[in-house]
What we know:
By secondary structure, the chain is α/β, with parallel strands linked by helices. The protein has 2 domains: 283 residues, Aspartate Aminotransferase, domain 2 (3-Layer(aba) Sandwich), CATH 3.40.640; 106 residues, Aspartate Aminotransferase, domain 1 (Alpha-Beta Complex), CATH 3.90.1150.10. The chain is 37% helix and 15% strand. It has 14 helices and 14 strands. The chain has an 8-stranded mixed β-sheet with strand order 3-10-9-8-7-4-5-6, with helices on both faces. Helix 7 links the parallel strand 4 and strand 5. It is globular. It binds pyridoxal-5'-phosphate.
Amino acid sequence: MTKPDFExxxxxxxxxxxxxxxxxxxxxxxxxxxxxSKSRKPAPIRHLFPYxxxxxxxxxLAGKPNASVFPFVSLTMKVRSSNPRIDDSLTDLSxxxxxxxxxxxxxxxxxxxxxxxxxxxxxCHLHGSQLDxxxxxxxxxxxxxxxxxxxxxxxxxxxxxxxESPTYPGVLPIVQALGCNIIExxxxxxxxxxxxxxSLLINWPKDKPYPKLLYTIPFGSNPSGSTTTLSRxxxxxxxxxxxxxxxxxxxxxxxxxxxxxxxxxxxxxxxxKVNGELGRVLRFDSFSKIVAGGLRLGWxxxxxxxxxxxxxxxxxxxxxxxxxxxxxxxxxxxxWGIEGFLAHTAMCAQFxxxxxxxxxxxxxxxxxxxxxxxxxxxxxxxxIKLRLPASMKxxxxxxxxxxxxxxxxxxxxxxxxxxxxxxxxxADGRRICNVRVSFSxxxxxxxxxxxxxxxxxxRE
Length: 460
Ligand SMILES: Cc1ncc(COP(=O)(O)O)c(C=O)c1O
């Protein structure tokens, strides 16, 4: 193997993998890293943290505060059962002693080791992964934090990247600031369209670098609500292998799938079955939609070199995700076990399915004839194409369908209904008549009234 053109040093104990069994060679990943990432130096103190755990070590290393001056002595939380519809009992879970000490103290950049192990086991359970394949998990302050660090680690000014389009509005400011060349890959009710990606790649200009990565949201995409079908996933994986790009699989809605057909496997799971080669998928999961958004906890799973680069960024930015949030979740997960966790997420999916069904009824009641939509099979979003009134259309644009931003500011907000204008889900901020509507928080009365208002504004 050729010597890599740089060395990436990391906190000992979390760095170089011992096995090269399944993934692409480490040098391939190293060559994908941005100049910024390659030039990052390990944080001097964090780099030495793992030596504190060596038997007999007396550590005078870090500025860790002495917990005896902290005000917290114990914490008790009441938690619901994993399916409150069947069992409405509450359980007291307390945090004290060593658990509380760990929660209150600085910890490893990659996360609480027990929680990392739990999520690693979950990955094996859900995605058919094995422990010694060369991937690992790191925990961040929500998947937003991990996505930010990942794009910074991989993307260079001028690089070409593919974005599923429309895309998560929260990712656009990240990639736009990096000055990369964004190519939007359209999606429809069946998710991202690999045929359009294939035709771009087949006709790729000889003098232009190929795309480095694809960013996609495979379940209940934000904002389109669409779930990518199995056959499209397979085609995307085939293209990733043929044209050597990474897939950033942003999957906060994985556990909120409620479609009628069995849930398609993740890219992370499928890759091992179809490509005969592992290591082009970096997954992003989140506790935000299933446990609590305010905890700010997510996790990234993928090739060690890339996850190491995320951690190296973390070790000089936010240092780690909140120790208290991690311990609260860990305490809950110890109590539930994987089975309880999955019972809980199944309950969440069922909750959103029922909300989707109800919302669909009111869409039919109020928006029929003035809008078009496809019901989502996961998550909490409808992507609705509004048939805007003539006053919202430009006379100087042929066949103009209108601008949902104008509709929002001139009609919807004054009319007491708030939706997200579609333009913020496109890198070019294009004029578009679609809006994203989230039904997660609405009770039946608000669905009825909110959609009635929208319908009557469209009919004005
Ligand atoms: C597609 C997508 N990715 C990432 C995030 C950020 O999630 P987190 O709360 O884990 O940072 C969201 C939040 O809505 C999202 O919809």
